[in-house]
Amino acid sequence: MKNLILWLLLAAATSPLFAQPNGKELPILSLNQEEYAQFEQLYKWFHSNGELSNHEWGVSGKMKEELKKLGFKIEPLGNFPGFLAIFENGGTDTYYWRVELDANPHKEPEGTGVDFASKVRTTHNGDSVWVVGSCGHPLHQSVALASAHLLVRNKHLWKGKRLGTLVEHAEEVGNGSSDLIQAGLFEKFGLPKGILSLHNSAEIRAGKVAVVAGASPMMPLVMNVDIEVQAISGCHVGEHYKCVDVNLLAAQILVRLQDIKNKVLNSVTEPSILGCGRICGGTRRNIHPLSCTLEFSIRCYTPEVRDKIMKHLRQIAEGEAMAAGAPMPKITAFEVVPALVNDPELGKKVVASFEKSLGKENIVPYHPVMLAEPFSKYGLTKDSIPILMFWLGGAKNGCDEGNDKEHLCPGLHSPNYLPDYQAALKTGATAVANAFIHLFNEK
Ligand SMILES: [Zn+2]
């Protein structure tokens, strides 16, 4: 935290210079009341019409329609909902804004209580679910369109440049950014000078923003790990001595694995999460099944800690199976998201822009978190494109970090989460539009 505060001070001390070509100061762009009302309606539409990862054709279509109206040319990259949209403004110097499309499956209904709550239902993993924009992506979509609108309305301020809106599908499951990159995003359309994005925060008050750039990653790497605990045969629970109880064995492994965090890793220098979000085993209460699978999301900041976790995970899972007289469990693991490290130089410029457009008092210090973002992948290709994601405050009054003493404020991925979208939409549009105006007019 200290480092971040120091860094923010340094950034202010060496503030980059932004001005129009004629030397005049750049105006600060923001939505007027009428424009705001238009994008608030779009926010509500996006919130009501969520779609699951890799199926976001309706939301993708809406984004295409709105971007086309603004004069963007749509460039599909493959048979998936993600795409690139480009606004040509007479030059090749390019920046991209990246925005995600997907919503989340929830077994419990949306609980925001608003009249535009999602009523979309579908089937996911065999379960009937509600589709809810519980990560706040509808806010990202409306901010992307509102800021694009401000930039197009003021295109005389960035003549000779080019702006791309990179619309990414399947952020929640991690494959959208890889699909776009592998489809030739950078080969076909050239390399941007930088790619910017945001995520809303349920812990930072709406109206504020935070930038975590510099030495520490903003978010960790994520490994998806499945441990399939197996038995040689199943049996009747009344004759439990005839087989291995794989559900009990899976539960023992799940509990023992937490020892890695508590006993193997240094809690201060090697923070990690070994979270099990899904357990699948059995068909009925009186049958011991053949297998039970634990689905983990394992998170940490470095490949070294990742390897340490994997080594001990294997030892514990195999050791417990051996002790129970079960076959070795099947362990499959792959890294779905690399750690997100923001470019420090781009970070400095964006902070300097926020100081002008939002005021220094609205930039708050923030720490790394254990959420994750495949946005990191755009910065890890052979071209090392500078990337920067910032936090857009979404928390309602009294719900910012440290204030939610009673745990009454739903966070990201809760079907009850609703950001303070009115304040956050205005702040987001101002922050994004002016960041680009400043980057395009850097001296
Ligand atoms: Zn998200």
Average pLDDT number: 93
At CATH's second level, what is the architecture of the largest domain?
A: 3-Layer(aba) Sandwich
In the predicted model, the low-confidence regions spanning at least 5 consecutive residues are 1-13
- Helix/strand order, N-terminal first: HHHEEEEEEHEHHEEEEHEEEHEHEH
- Quote the beta fraction: 15-25%
What is bound: which ligands?
Answer: zinc ion
Give an overview in words.
It is built from ten helices and 16 strands. It is of the alpha+beta class and 443 residues long. It folds into two domains: 2-219 and 340-440, Zn peptidases (Aminopeptidase, 3-Layer(aba) Sandwich), CATH 3.40.630; 221-337, Alpha-Beta Plaits. A seven-stranded mixed β-sheet has the order 1-2-7-3-8-16-9, sandwiched between helices. A hairpin with a 6-residue loop joins strand 1 (73-76) and strand 2 (83-89). The chain is elongated and about 85 Å long. It starts with a helix and ends with a helix. The model is unreliable at 1-13 (pLDDT under 50). Zinc ion binds next to loops.
Helices and strands, with pairings:
Layout: H1 2-13, H2 33-48, H3 57-70, E1 73-76, E2 83-89, E3 93-100, E4 104-106, E5 121-124, E6 127-132, H4 137-153, E7 161-168, H5 175-182, H6 185-189, E8 194-205, E9 209-210, E10 221-230, E11 235-236, H7 246-264, E12 272-281, E13 287-288, E14 291-300, H8 303-324, E15 330-337, H9 344-357, E16 387-395, H10 421-440
Parallel strand pairs: 3-7, 3-8, 8-16
Antiparallel strand pairs: 1-2, 2-7, 4-6, 5-6, 9-16, 10-14, 10-15, 11-13, 12-14
Helix pairs in contact: 2-4, 2-10, 3-4, 4-10, 7-8, 9-10
The protein binds zinc ion.
